[in-house]
Amino acid sequence: MSPVLDVNRVDLDHAINHKDHQTDFSEPECLFVRRGQIFTISLHLNSGQYNEGKDTLTITAEIGAQPSENDGTRAVFRVSDTIDEASWGAKASSRTAGVLTLSISSAPSAPIGHYTLFLDQEGQRQVKLGQFVLLYNPWCPRDSVYLDDEDKLEEYVLSQDGLIYVINLALPWIFGQFQQGILDICLKLLGIDPAGVQGCGATGNPVYVTRLLSGLIHKHVLWGNWNDTSDGVNPEEWQSSVEILQRWDMEKSLVRYGQCWVFAAVNCTVSRALGIPCRVIINFDSAHDTDGNLTIDKYVDKYGRPSKETRDSTWFVLQSWINR
């Protein structure tokens, strides 16, 4: 039996998809799309054509080392005449001479990360169509990270720099989540332990992933130090998550040193890169208030010099926007 389609090459339509998915920051060699939203691919054919209602084409999307439909790491769906953006699906959106364009939707709760697409034709050998990276989608109402506020989307997802407020000081910080190579580093970090003991399929849950990232950054990326930092970088000297992540990626070891706002800032970069809306805040509610007066006290004399020791302190944490 001859194949319905003899595929010569596949165009992942990077420019169109990246613009539609708010991922036009990415490298053109790799396709980055957001879950719960349609993207297109174009199949350039040596021969054959798709006849709707007559020919059976099946698409398979797989993620992880051992993909399975049971945990959501493999999705199998047919090309049909309709598409439901609430689940994985595909339809032929355009048919011209020698080219078949498919519109593909991913489930809004699908695991995130590196996927491989395959085409199956009845009785024929499976054809690899290409690879793409799936991210969380705060623009999609069906995604649990959905944020219905354009101003907050600009700040919590797209903004690559900002201020971290330390009491009455505003420290400039470069989050740089869309700088060249940073998203790849963030995915590499997640790949150290794709979803802890729960497996790769658990990356579909952003609540679990934010908790996982906190542990990964503390365990693998930054070394916390509140004492002598002479054999590394004083945490107060950092002004960018980019430098920290690049150093971790290059040296393959803990970066010395970090404190609470540095950990929170790096976590913010990784979360925004993956599509989780978030920001860095001062956490007064669980601050280190040693005398129980509900204030963080600093004592100085009339010349502004410290006059009394206090262990009161505030902590910096990551505030994520997730519809739980």
From TrEMBL:
GO biological process assignments: nervous system development; proteolysis
Catalytic activity: L-glutaminyl-[protein] + H2O = L-glutamyl-[protein] + NH4(+); L-glutaminyl-[protein] + histamine = 5-histaminyl-L-glutamyl-[protein] + NH4(+); L-glutaminyl-[protein] + serotonin = 5-serotonyl-L-glutamyl-[protein] + NH4(+); L-glutaminyl-[protein] + (R)-noradrenaline = 5-(R)-noradrenalinyl-L-glutamyl-[protein] + NH4(+)
Cofactor(s) the record lists: Ca(2+)
Highest taxon, organism lineage: Eukaryota
Compartments it resides in: Cell membrane; Chromosome; Cytoplasm, Cytosol; Mitochondrion
Subcellular location, principal: membrane
Family assignment from sequence similarity: Belongs to the transglutaminase superfamily. Transglutaminase family.
UniProt name for this protein: Protein-glutamine gamma-glutamyltransferase 2
Organism: Clupea harengus
Gene encoding the protein: tgm2b
